[in-house]
Design a protein that fits this description.
With 386 residues, this protein is α+β, with helices and mostly antiparallel strands. The protein has one domain (3-385): 4-Layer Sandwich (Chorismate synthase, AroC fold). The protein is 34% helix and 19% strand. It has 13 helices and 17 strands. Bound molecules: ligand EPS.
Length: 386
């Protein structure tokens, strides 16, 4: 089974990760991972940090002559910004000349993090809770994603809404998506990548960009909703027999634990709750002796098990909690109410979160796939799938 760990502070030397459980014989290059790292850095509304960084992975172990060895794969992404933080984020020394951060930003992990770990400097929390960590998550998960592509499973995403910029009727993009999906879900992603906000409809894109512009002027931030689609998934991954084997639950957990994600739905989860059962469930029909599903409101999962349709999972991102025009907070030293502080941040990072969403579902699907088909090497797995 695939496991991965990430380590690293936002302004530390580097982000590092270890991916364990990847079968042997998978073609893997740093270019492949870099492509996804670069996609995560895009999006209208990103802050100054993305102009500093050009995230590039260094594969340190677990790969020889372009193929995985079946051993743990160690990855590193250096933080270019570290050069500006060597004293403030030093591993050694006492830090006694460094100013402490004492004004927690509402909505961030700042306040609760200092209480939990007994810190007197919020910097200790900020640097690990930061969404910078998702760069290494994307790197680690891209390895699992490469494995999935090898067995015909592709992942894509697009942004459905940013703030109040949303489609009244999804039909226009659904036609586009169906067309793109006749190749695979990656074609949805590469089409979305052409848009600065990763949206598939140009009038929606314009609306989203102008609301981000207006929001920036006000010193505010915006969230939104992204959709991840997974194609080529075989029937029967996951199980209904026990709660922790339900694949929908595992996918929801993977998406929910991305920074700033506060809501997850599978298929038409929330809309279905407003409809009659007869308007919700995807009928099972027979066409030329083959079972077909005319609709996919279930998002590819019934009973926590894949039903052969595309998996659809959406994530709702709250507006980033670092505001240029800050909210009130309590000074952790004086305990008095003050304006919170501003720390360089993004105005909107929904397009990036969509790429992170694509990434984090990969190890979940890969594990369900390996549970069913097993195998230590790509060759062995392909034989078993056949
Ligand atoms: C991010 C890096 C961070 C932020 C942002 C995302 O870098 P810095 O704090 O140096 O600007 O730009 O993080 C947050 C929005 C957050 O809440 O922490 C990145 O690499 O994606």
């Amino acid at each position: 089974m695939i496991r991965y760990f990430t380590s690293g502070e936002s302004h530390g030397q580097a982000l590092v990760g270890i991916v364990e459980g990847i079968p042997a014989g998978l073609s893997l290059s740093s270019e492949y991972i870099n492509r996804h790292l670069q996609r995560r850095q895009q999006g209208y509304g990103r802050g100054g940090r993305m102009r500093i960084e050009t995230d590039r992975v260094e594969i340190l172990s677990g790969v020889r002559f372009g193929k995985t060895l079946g051993s743990p794969i160690a990855l590193m992404v250096r933080n270019k910004d570290w050069a500006n933080w060597t004293e403030k984020m030093s591993v050694e020394g006492s830090g006694k000349n460094i100013d402490k951060i004492i004004l927690p930003r509402p909505g961030h992990a700042d306040y609760i993090g200092t209480l939990k770990y007994g810190f007197d400097d919020i910097r200790n929390v900020i640097d690990r809770a930061s969404a910078r960590e998702t760069a290494m998550r994307v790197a680690c998960c891209s390895v699992a994603r490469k494995f999935l592509e090898e067995v015909g499973i592709f992942i894509g995403s697009h942004v459905l809404s940013i703030g109040s910029a949303e489609l009244k009727d999804r039909k226009i993009i659904d036609v586009k998506i169906q067309k793109l999906l006749s190749a695979n879900a990656w074609s949805v992603a590469s089409e979305a990548d052409k848009s600065e906000v990763r949206m598939l409809e140009s009038s929606l894109e314009e609306k989203a960009i102008s609301s981000i512009k207006a929001c920036k002027k006000k010193g505010d931030t915006l969230g939104g909703i992204f959709e991840v689609i997974i194609s080529g998934v075989p029937i029967g991954l996951g199980s209904y027999v026990h709660f922790d084997r339900k694949l929908d639950g595992q996918l929801a957990q993977a998406v929910m634990c991305i920074q700033a994600i506060k809501g997850v739905e599978i298929g038409d989860g929330f809309e279905n709750a407003k409809r009659f059962g007869s308007q919700v469930h995807d009928e099972i029909l027979s066409k030329n002796g083959k079972v077909i599903r005319p609709t996919n409101r279930a998002g590819g999962l019934e009973g926590g098990v894949t039903n052969g349709e595309n998996i659809i999972i959406r994530g709702a991102m709250k507006p980033i909690s670092t505001l240029a025009n800050p909210l009130r907070t309590v000074n952790i030293v004086t305990k008095k109410t003050e304006q919170s502080r501003y720390e360089r941040s993004d105005v909107c990072a929904v397009p990036a979160a969509a790429v992170v969403g694509e990434s984090v579902v990969a190890p979940v699907i890969a594990n369900a796939f390996l549970e069913k088909f097993g195998g230590d090497s790509i060759k062995e797995i392909k034989k078993r799938v056949k």
